Structure prediction request, 34 residues.
Amino acid sequence: MIEPQEALRIVLEKSPRLEAVEVPLPEADGAVLA
Prediction:
């Protein structure tokens, strides 16, 4: 059985928009890029 962390990592890797998945709030973009 696959571990939750591993499953999440795979989903994020397959996602074309990692930032959108990890940081759904627009105001959080500045904090990530800063």
User: Anything to note?
Assistant: The radius of gyration is 12 Å. Residues 4-33 form one domain.
